[in-house]
Design a protein that fits this description.
69 residues; mainly alpha; 88% helix
Length: 69
């Protein structure tokens, strides 16, 4: 159960981060080719996911499982 919740929370975190980053690109008026956008997006989001959002999602899933069984 903890593993499934971790995946769910990680997906929510990634979805939110990707959407926010793309909105930021649009609002900044950055008209870049798709490969450049993808490169910049992954340059920011992969480390963020590994070092911040991933561990937070795992901790959150463990907390939910402990609290609600």
């Amino acid at each position: 159960m903890t593993r499934l919740l971790t995946v769910l929370f990680a997906w929510i975190a990634v979805y939110t981060a990707v959407t926010a980053t793309l909105v930021g690109f649009q609002r900044a008026g950055l008209d870049m080719p798709l490969p450049v956008q993808t490169f910049l997006l992954t340059t920011v989001l992969v480390p963020t996911m590994i070092f911040i959002l991933g561990p937070f999602a795992a901790m959150l899933a463990q907390t939910v499982v402990r609290k609600f069984g």
